[in-house]
Design goal:
- The structure holds two protein chains of two kinds.
- By secondary structure, chain A is mainly α.
- Chain A is built from two helices and no strands.
- The termini of chain A are close together.
- By secondary structure, chain B is mostly helical.
- The longest helix of chain B is centred in the middle third of the chain and has 51 residues.
- The radius of gyration of chain B is 22 Å and the shape is globular.
- Chain B starts with a helix and ends with a helix.
- The chains are: A mainly alpha, B mainly alpha.
Chain lengths: ~80, ~500
């Protein structure tokens, strides 16, 4: 099984997110100040992870499209995860 | 003109537009079960985005979540996290589900799982769990619609009429157009909800405090305990990190496993539709922000609402908003309720026929009879849910949580279906049953929970152990079929 870097990074992003929005990863960032965009930092932190998720998945999507463009017809069984 | 008349008029106009869109959208669908349940597998990106988003944001998002932010502060932030984590796996899972669906003809989650494990028993179990979870959920959506309508018309429109009006519209377009009616009305309802929420969410804090920043400055001075996680519990005491964190994990797994999410994956045109929906989905989640702003604006506001769940309508009604805007708000709340309720009504009826009735009573039902039967069941489910919504005061939420606990238990089976070829029907059934029973027992007897862990997490542990144990003790499922299933899930579409 070959692990591809880009999807692995996306999975890593979500693993990091689980750590940083629950105990104990959230604790250092779970604070009122500084205010960002008018919001307490604790709330802004949540927004960051949401926006980040969109960017990461968008990156994976673009990467997949490019890769498929290159490998078109060559190896139709290419897939994510798997055996 | 009196305020409630204008409000009712605006809301009725919204209902009419929903009905027209829903009614007309079914014209192109083929006259088959796949057409009615999975939209001929032809949903594009726009519809898919709003179906997923609007389905997720129910009446609970418009009433319950702001109620949490208002009364429990940072505790409400957990919705951001589980909403995101619950959808994330669908970027990968969605295309796999859609591929095996296209090849083997599945239109529901139970069809997929019971065919992978070659077990009718599994099909009945999943169908039962899904329907038991859906009915109280639909009832809650109906009740939510009725309550909002009642509140914004100063009590002139009784709850039972408001709920009936909104859901008569839903029933008509679900019967006429199936999933296409759900898809296109959700698109309209979704856009509507987003515009209303953002407009009011920015305007209200500005009107009351001079902006979002100044509002939070005031709160930081007067009620700082509300601005950080894990916030407060229902009684107003500080909430624990353990409960906050495990609530995120269990809710995220539950969201991923909702049967109607699977059904929408079967409706997608191709892999890219699902993937792009997941790329853009976080933008929909940010829609919670304006709702939280309104809720936080209510904390330092007098008079207080009669219950925390009323904070949104309460703020709109007490801040000199024009009646037309109140009407639009009411329509937005109905949109949130209806766009979730319609998908569930449609899903409950489809699941009953495809996974229960057909497997148990008559295997050779024609496509035409199945479609008719789905419509009949949709009406019955709607009536039962409506009856529950307007008559019972009993703990719907308890019933819902119990069934939701069982939905969470579908996660291990779904994962092994795609990853572990050795998993067998006996393992799947044992895992589901034992996991659900454990969850229910611990839910009813909280003192038995080890380390105060969420009952769902303990259930999942039992579930996984039973799944592995019983699979290894039984003969493998037809190897060729399983190989084919797993291989198909990994093939990118042409």
């Amino acid at each position: 099984m070959r692990i591809r870097l880009i999807p692995a990074l996306a999975v890593l992003y979500y693993a990091a997110m689980i750590f940083f929005v629950t105990y104990p990863g959230y604790v250092p960032f779970d604070r009122i100040r500084p205010f960002v965009l008018g919001m307490p930092f604790s709330m802004f932190w949540q927004v960051c992870w949401i926006v980040g998720a969109g960017l990461v998945l968008g990156g994976v999507f673009v990467w997949e499209q490019k890769r498929r463009g290159k490998a078109d017809g060559a190896r139709p069984t290419a897939s994510e995860g798997g055996d | 003109m009196e305020r409630w008349v204008i409000v009712t008029f605006v809301t009725a106009s919204y209902l009419l537009v929903s009905l027209v869109i829903g009614w007309l959208s079914g014209r192109k669908a083929s006259n088959t079960v796949t057409g009615y349940v999975a939209g001929d597998r032809d949903f594009g990106l726009l519809v898919m985005y709003f179906v997923m988003g609007a389905m997720m944001f129910s009446a609970f998002a418009f009433l319950g979540t702001p109620g949490w932010a208002y009364s429990r502060g940072g505790a409400a932030f957990y919705v951001f996290s589980y909403g995101l984590l619950g959808f994330a796996p669908w970027y990968f899972l969605g295309p796999w589900v859609a591929r095996v669906g296209r090849k083997f003809g599945y239109v529901t989650q139970a069809e997929l799982l019971s065919d992978r494990f070659k077990s009718d028993l599994l099909s009945w179990l999943i169908a039962l769990v899904s329907i038991v979870a859906f009915i109280p959920y639909i009832a809650l959506q109906m009740k939510g619609a009725g309550i909002v309508f009642n509140a914004v018309t100063d009590g002139k429109v009784p709850i039972w009429i408001g709920a009936a009006a909104a859901y008569a519209v839903v029933m008509l377009y679900v019967l006429k157009s199936g999933v296409l009616g759900v898809g296109w009305t959700n698109t309209f309802q979704g856009i509507f909800m987003l515009i209303i929420a953002w407009t009011l969410g920015i305007w209200l804090p500005k009107h009351l405090y001079g902006g979002v920043g100044p509002m939070f400055e005031r709160l930081a001075e007067l009620r700082p305990e509300l601005l950080t996680a894990p916030g407060l519990d229902a009684s107003g005491a500080p909430w624990g990190w353990g409960a906050y964190s495990s609530a995120i994990i269990v809710s995220a797994i539950g969201v991923t496993m909702w049967p109607h999410l699977f059904m929408k994956a079967f409706a997608a045109k191709n892999d890219n539709t699902i993937k792009l929906t997941m790329v853009f989905y976080p933008t929909f989640l940010l829609f919670l922000l304006p709702l939280y702003f309104i809720a936080f604006a209510g904390v330092l506001f007098d008079p207080k609402p009669i219950s925390a769940d009323f904070i949104l309508p309460h703020m709109i009604l007490n801040t000199n908003v024009a009646p037309v805007v109140i009407g639009l708000f009411c329509a937005g709340a109905l949109a949130a309720s209806m766009s979730t309720g319609d998908a569930m009504l449609h899903a409950a009826a489809s699941i009953y026929v495809q996974d229960f009735h057909r497997k148990l009573f008559s295997r050779d039902l024609s496509d035409h009879s199945r479609r008719t039967l789905i419509r009949v069941v949709a009406v019955i489910v709607g009536i039962v849910a409506y009856f529950i919504a307007v008559t019972t005061q009993m703990s719907l939420v308890a019933l819902l949580l119990a069934a939701y606990g069982a939905i969470v238990q579908l996660a291990p089976i779904t994962v092994v279906a795609f990853f572990w070829k050795r998993a067998t029907a006996a393992g799947a059934v044992a895992g589901l049953v034992l996991g659900s029973i454990t969850t229910l027992l611990l839910y009813l007897n909280p003192e038995l929970r080890p380390f105060g862990l969420h009952e769902g997490i303990v259930g999942l542990t039992v579930n996984c152990s039973a799944l592995v144990l019983f699979s290894l003790l039984t003969q493998p499922t037809a190897t060729e079929h399983v190989e084919d299933f797993v291989r198909t899930s990994r093939l990118p579409d042409a």
